[in-house]
Structures are given as C-alpha cells and as structure tokens.
Amino acid sequence: MTHRRDIKHILFTFFYLFTPLISMGFSSCHDVSEDIPPSSKITVQYAGDSLRILVLGNSFSVDGTAYMEEIVHALHLDHQRFCLYNGFIGSGGIQEWTDTFNACDTVKLTRMAGGIDMIDVAPLKEIIQQPWEVCVILQGSHQSYKWNSFEQRTPHLISLIKSLCPNQQVKIAYAMPWSHTVVNTPTELPGNIKCTWKLYEEHVIDIIIPVGIAIQNAREAHLDNGKYLTRDDWHICYGAGRYIAACTWYEALLEPFFHVSILDSDVLHPLTTSEQEDPTSLPVDETNRRLCQQCAYQAVQSPLKVTELNGK
C-alpha cells in the first residue's frame, strides 16, 4: 500500500508540475482570469434563526451530504433549526437542472439532514418557491473544469432561483467537485479552481463549498485507500472520503449558522455493514479523524488553494 501511494504521489507531482495545461485539454478554460485567486476564507452571515438549504445536485452532492445528519447529531446541534434537501439528477449540472425547470418536470427531494419540513415532491418551480436561505448548485464533474460549460448557462439558472424564491436574500453556493484519478488531476484541479473563482469573482455565487480542495488536501497528506480516495475512479470512497466531503459541507454552510466547528471534534465514522463490503472503504477512526477534519477545515479557510498538512 505504501509503495503504491508513493508512486501515485510522484505521478501527480510530475504531471502537475511538468505537463502543459493546454496539451491536456485545458484550453476550454483559457479565458478564465489567470490572476492567482485569494486564499482567504469567505465570510458567510445568516440573518434568521433557521436555515433551509436546497441542493440542485447529482451523485457528488449525495456523496458530500450522506454523513451530514450523523455529524450534526454527534455535535449535539439542534436539527430542528435547519434542513438540507438534495435533488438528484444523474451526472446533472447547470444545463440539466435548467432543462428540468423548463420542462416542468417533477422533482423528488431527499432530506439529507435537519428537521424542518419542506415540500419535497413537486415541479422544480414550486420547489424553488419555498423560503430557502441557501441554494446549492453543482456542475457535472465531467464539465466542472471547463468554463464554457458555465458562462452562458449559470446566470440563467441563478436568475430563475432568485426571481422565484420568496427570500430575496437567498444565497447561492457552489460545491466544487473533486478531481477523479491521479492522471486526470493535472487537468481537472486547476480547471475546477479557476472556474470556481470565476463564478465568485463575477458575483454569480456567494458561497464556495470547496470539497475538491479538501479531498486534494487529504491526498497530498497521503490519506489513501489505494484508489485515490475514490471507490470507482470517479465517486468518493465510503468512510474517509465521504466524511471529508461532509465536513467541508458542514464547515462551509452550517458552521456560520451554529458557530460550532468540526475541527477537533470527536466525531468518527465506523463503516456500516454495507460499506465494509466495499474494499475501497476507509473507516474514520482515532488514527485519521483529526486529519480528515483538518483537510475540510483548511479547505474552507483557503477555498481555492491546496494546503500541505502534516498528516497528523
């Protein structure tokens, strides 16, 4: 395992430092600002005493929020003060959710965490016409590093959300996905960073959920399940992968509301019976709990910059 991990780290370093981005197909994002984005935390302030979060998502948002209720319960927070509902379209992103709206298709939401009841089966227009405080959007991970998949479509979807949501102060968040395999990372990671920065720089989004940065923090810290923290070279692994993602969602969205950080908490995730059946699963225990939390916490502190952690 150690030998394989070292080889992967060497490969990543080689590709990241020496492979020209243009030759790797990054030219679709060439018009994104080349300025180095700021690495400071984005301050989030909520006005009310309740927090309702809608996610227009895909399998990456399922992975990212699967352990959210578990975390909130372990931190002894009042789950009746918030809710997080996830809408799912397989491989869905900006265009697919816009198409769903235009077609008046019925959407079924899954409550991933929290105790506030919301309408969870209705046409997307009716779903949006509820008093959400935050609406999270995602891009399909196969397009998330290509700016031309955002520039025309994203403003239209967000204008629909802001015109229909009765909360005129609704915040728009974007969940940055993780890059896939070690071979893909030199293309996807810089692209994800620059496209996310472009959305924020142009005031399209208010909040960044930097899951991609948190997962890369973990990879750089040599947290490894033998498959680059994925379970299928695509989706994040059960256990540590999903835990880091959920900690990042929590720290970006819920910490500013509850004012309780995940960092240095005693929250663990022993693998469930079904997760144990997957050989790529990696339990969260006392040996890696703090590192997982550090990866998420530091990502939110520096949402567009991979941070070197000491692995302890």
Mind explaining what this structure looks like?
By secondary structure, this protein is α/β, with parallel strands linked by helices. Helix content is 38%, strand content 12%. It contains 11 helices and 7 strands. The chain has a 7-stranded mixed β-sheet, sandwiched between helices. Helix 6 links the parallel strand 5 and strand 6 (171-175). Helix 8 crosses helix 9 (240-258). The longest helix is centred in the last third of the chain and has 19 residues, at 240-258. The chain is globular and about 45 Å long. 46% of the residues are buried. The model is unreliable at 1-33 (pLDDT under 50).
Report the C-alpha radius of gyration, rounded: 18 Å
Assembly context of the chains: single chain
Count of runs of 4 or more consecutive helical residues: 11
Estimate the mean pLDDT confidence: 89
Biggest sheet descriptor: 7 strands, mixed
Tell the overall outline. Answer: globular
Major beta sheet, strand line-up: 4-3-2-1-5-6-7
Fraction of residues in helix: 25-40%
The overall strand count is: 7
What structural category characterises the helix and strand content? alpha/beta
**Strand proportion:** 5-15%
- The ordered string of helix (H) and strand (E) elements is HEHHEHEEHEHEHEHHHH
Distance between the termini: 18 Å
| Spans of at least 5 consecutive residues with low confidence | 1-33
Question: What is this entry, summarized?
Answer:
The protein has 312 residues and is α/β, with parallel strands linked by helices. Helix content is 38%, strand content 12%.
Topology, element by element:
Elements: H1 2-18, E1 51-57, H2 59-65, H3 68-74, E2 82-88, H4 94-102, E3 106-114, E4 121-123, H5 124-128, E5 134-137, H6 154-164, E6 171-175, H7 185-201, E7 207-209, H8 211-220, H9 240-258, H10 273-276, H11 289-301
Parallel strand pairs: 1-2, 1-5, 5-6, 6-7
Antiparallel strand pairs: 2-3, 3-4
Helix pairs in contact: 8-9, 8-11, 9-11
